[in-house]
Amino acid sequence: MDIKKSVVLGICAVAVVGIGYAVYWDYLRQTDPEFRRKLKKTRKKAAKAKKAAAEESKVRAADFLRKAVEQVGNENFPTDVTAKEKYFMEQVAKGENLFAKGESDYLDAALCFYKALKVYPNPVELIMIYQKTIPEAVFNLVYEMMSIEVKKKQAEYFENFPPKEMNVKVEEVSQRSTSDDHVRRALISTKDFAPGDVIFVEQAIASALDPSLEGNEFCSYCLKELNGSEFHDESDLFGAIYCSESCREKAMTEYETLLFTTRDDSRSSKEARLMESVKSGKVKYPLMIARFLAKMVHEETQKVATGIEEEYSTWDHIERLRFLAVNPSDKESKEIKLMRDLFETKVPGMEEFISEERYLMLKGKLLYNAYGIHTEHNLGTIRENLEETVRSSQPTVIGAGFYRVASYLAHSCSPNTEVRFPDKNNVLSIVATKPIRTGDELNVSYIRVGDRDYSNRRNELETKWRFKCTCTKCLEETGEIDTIA
Ligand SMILES: C[S@@+](CC[C@H](N)C(=O)[O-])C[C@H]1O[C@@H](n2cnc3c(N)ncnc32)[C@H](O)[C@@H]1O
Q1: 408: buried, middle or exposed (CB in 10 Å: 19+, 13-18, 0-12)?
Q2: By the 8 A CB rule, do 85 and 121 touch?
Q3: TM segments (predicted)?
Q4: 200 lines ligand 1 (CB under 6 A)
Q5: Contacts (Cβ under 8 Å, ≥6 apart) of 170
Q6: Would 160 be classed as within a structural domain?
Q7: CA 275 to CA 281: how far, in whole Å?
Q8: Which of 95, 120, 121, 123 is most buried, most CB within 10 Å of its CB?
Q9: pTM over 0.80
Q10: How far is CA 464 from the centre of its chain?
Q11: Which residue range(s) make up the domain with 129?
């Protein structure tokens, strides 16, 4: 018998045995209930074991990834360029060798690629390269590590921010008032203070002068009054003036070059239209939003250029601030169009980032959280625009500023702290006005109190910040003091 035939016969014999066994099997299945029961049990057990094994390997992988992120977070990475390059090349080569070995080494391979990301100057670009060059399963593991890291960082936000030296922490407090119960975030003192003590000092994320003062006596960057010495920028066709060379330079680097350096000074230019809308609407927030967005772009480009990344970006800080929703109207649609037109030619893709939802959110956050910046000058003609609900206990303000930490301060008509601008610019100081103990909640007055009665004050607070003030002063005046435990 030749080999070919024997192979065919062999196959036939196996097939016959196979068919015979299948028939016998089917017969048992149909006729023997005990067999059927056992069979079902065995199948269930096998499926269960398979599921458990898959679960276990998933849990093991998740545990590996979590621990890996933790370990990488505590690692010291090289800082100088040559050492970074060397480390990067080593990790990438190691990762490639590992994934070539097969699935069992995918986790270790992913860890190498994740470590390489830590020293690469433009991580977003590298992720895009990974997506095209490494196996999908490994890429997904790298991606998973990145999202664990982001979630961990976000979850720890209020443990790391505000920094310890600011003497305050953000905590959730439950508000028991006569009208409603809700949880709100508040600033709690981490030290004792006497009246007059400065609790913290804070730089603005973005600020803007009242439009009537732009280009006129006040510094466009720090909002300080000029004392004769003005610094103009030749390329700025919109008349911003500065109190010092340093302010001019900062404005140029952070936002001005991006926003307003243009060869087109016609009234129809995008820049001119934005300024026209700010001035005619007598509102500060569009300029603040434009500056804020430009600053974000600057922050991102700096990150790529220097490889240095702050623990939390400005966007991370902003994201957490609460706000009141702004309903879209024609006015907002026009503002959004203006903003998109302005950015579209300057930063590709930015016009998509400025979605209606994002713009309204930013506007809501600014109006809800910003502080009016006051000076001691007698500026009787300058009044807060009614639409701009910036917080201020002073009747006159020269502009507004948006701050990361001070945003969390609650209101009281008889507050234990005060917002001050001691250098007569946009740098804010929170100063104790009463003795403060560690653990006390800090508050400021969102509105001018003076001799206004409680219903007048409550009206303003309810209209602008949608809460009913139940501070001791209000409760004393209303006689409600005993109704709150
Ligand atoms: C600018 S935010 C302050 C931070 C805010 N508490 C948070 O949770 O992020 C203003 C909002 O805080 C709340 N708030 C401030 N002072 C309050 C007070 N005395 N009583 C109740 N709610 C207050 C109100 O909801 C108000 O609209």
Answers
A1: buried
A2: no
A3: 7-27
A4: no
A5: 158, 161, 162, 185, 186, 187, 188, 408
A6: no
A7: 10
A8: 95
A9: no
A10: 24
A11: 58-155
